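QA checklist item 7 of 12: single-chain prediction sanity check.
[x] sequence parsed
[x] length recorded as 241
[x] structure emitted
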Amino acid sequence: MNAESVVSKALETAAKEAVEGAGTWLAAALGGAPAAAPAVRVAAAAAQAVAAALLAESSPVERKVDRLLREPWRTGSRELGEALSLPAGSGPERQLRAERLKAALARLAVAQTAAELDGDDSLLVLIHAQRALGYAMLPGGGPSAARHLRRLELRSRALRKAAESEEAKSRSARVRARAPRPSAAQSLRELHELPPLRRDEEAGLAAAQEKLERAEALRREAAGLERFCSFARAVSYRSTR
């Protein structure tokens, strides 16, 4: 499972496990049903559930992460979850929550820099998602959240472009697999040099199907990132109210 799949899976897991109200709203939003903007309490609970799910579902990505990258990312992830679990109240509670969020975001910023230097694109997807979520729930953090969401949207576009490329390759492979073969009038030598028709066609069609399935997987990953961006914008809007 790659980072894009982790983000998509985390949204689904959060919709099932979030507290009543937050889970209902999140499930409706992910299902494409028109959903009213959540109340602050619901937005906070949904954000906490998604942050926890991102960390819980990230094991396949974490196993591939260099140990030097793992520590700041893991620590920042844990601190983000803890900060989002604090009451989204007012006065001292609001200030404490904001301070904890800022600390978690600073730790994740260290992890992001390390991942960029290491060229770990998979971890970067997770970090951008986490930082977008953290800033979305931080008063005044909307512009910073938008910057991270923009990176995820660019990634989504790249995935959709790659899917189109795989589909084009699939069509080409199907055409080649079913291309006309030499007639019986051609020399025996020419026929001898060609692989058996049935085996050649089956191999070509199998390759075409594989590319088509890859294109579908890329589109699912892109859709998962797009759903996450929509979710983060929705909770960001409510967190500032």
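[x] summary fact logged: The two ends are 36 Å apart (CA to CA).
[ ] second reviewer sign-off
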